[in-house]
Amino acid sequence: MEDGRPFCPQCRAPQIHVQIAAAAESVTAVPEATDHLASTRLPEARDFGSTQAVESSLYDRAVVVRSALKAGVLGVFIGIIPFIGIVLTGSCGVYFYRREKGFAPPVRIAARVGAAAGVVSFAISSVLIVIRIVVLHAQQEYVDTVTKMARLAGYNPADPDIQAGIHSLFTPGGLVLTIFFGMIFSLALAALGGAVAALLLRPRGRS
Description:
There is one protein chain. The protein is mainly alpha-helical. It is built from eight helices and no strands. The longest helix is centred in the last third of the chain and has 30 residues, at 172-201.
């Protein structure tokens, strides 16, 4: 038989084996394509944190500023809870970010949001404290508060060195150092709160 001849020149029988083979190839190709699609995993939310480039694309500076301002103002009030209030302030910043963007940011970005919220909260609180000390002459009130904290930490407030150290905190240089180290401490705790909030708010992977 010559290639391409549809019928046998002797018995005129149709030569359909070529068409059947082509059909068989097309039929077997469909399951392979289906298997390939089935084996392809759709991207999930946890994939967003896989690379720094993708994280940078998710970083929205304007949303971070708005979220930090909202959480910072709220943190002035919840910050009265020692330590935990600062952590909650950072968590609130991530909550506001998620509410506006529609998804929880990766942990690295969430830590930035939380830290920004902590800085805003600490800045507002520091301004209010300075105004209260300078304008309302409430220095003795804060001296008593620091003395109480020193006693809780195990120091003897009656010690002349301890008293001198407490009073030095309310000098101009002492206030600057207190504000600086307080801001670093607040930033660290608020960043921790933001990272924890991101872990709790992100969607769970499908089983």
